[in-house]
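This is your field. Please look over both lines of this record.
***
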Amino acid sequence: MRQYLYFYAFFFFFFSSLPAQSIDVIIPCCERDHQILHKCIEGIRTHCHQVRRIIVVSSTQLTDKAEWVCETAYPFDKFTIACEFFKGDVHASRAYTKEANTRVGWYYQQLLKLYVYRVIPHLTSNVLVLDADTIFLNPVEFIREDNVALYNVGKEYHRPYFEHGSRLIPGFRRLFPKFSGICHHMLLQRDVLNDLLQMVEQEQGVEFWKAFCRSVDKMQVYKSGASEYEIYFNFVFLKGYPAKIRKLKWKNVSSLKRIEKYRADGYVYVSCHSHSRSNSEKSGE
């Protein structure tokens, strides 16, 4: 009995003594980003002093440079997501998950991010979800000493994202006409994310992931019909949580051959998507 008391005393002391600005990093990853994953891990570990743990979420273990959480720990998978899209039609759901142009994996990885606090134990109150094809090149912080969360922005605007958000969350809307929350990473905070998920579940009467899927327009199932980044980013500012927009210098690139030049030019990070890498390889860039 005494040894258990010692353990819990140590556990409480360790986690209560963590700096308020400590963050854990969650990187959902699939096989096609396996080759770039180690650069993603190295980049955030090297350039963000606030990082405590780095955790990769994937179907199989893809690296020994970070902790690993298997996707089977989650309460949904690609097939159950498809079933929500197609209202339980098993035949349609099975066909959708097997089609070459399916988008189910794209929706799936969004939910992996939004469920981190419900699945992964002992996370800090601040979690950075990071796309596996994104590489940090220069120093960066994601939360100030006064616990104000810092958010970068992009320029993308896609109306179906906000139509989906308005069906999912009462009063949801686009707050910043010139800014997008889509910039390949997002700081999630436990209290904010719990508020978001619980609000949706109380309003919709079902688990959040089901409500998320049911709110996707059926005409958008094969397209881009939802954005976890736009949902969370706009929700933070709609609800008035302590947060500030600060712009980082970043860009999407088609190759990593000039990565040192991007670093020297002051880019904080770059993102190199798999389709861009493939096209670059084909063109000999």
Summary: The beta strands are 23-28, 51-58, 67-70, 126-130, 134-136, 149-151, 185-189, 243-245, 250-252, 269-271. The CA atoms of residues 55 and 203 lie 32 Å apart.
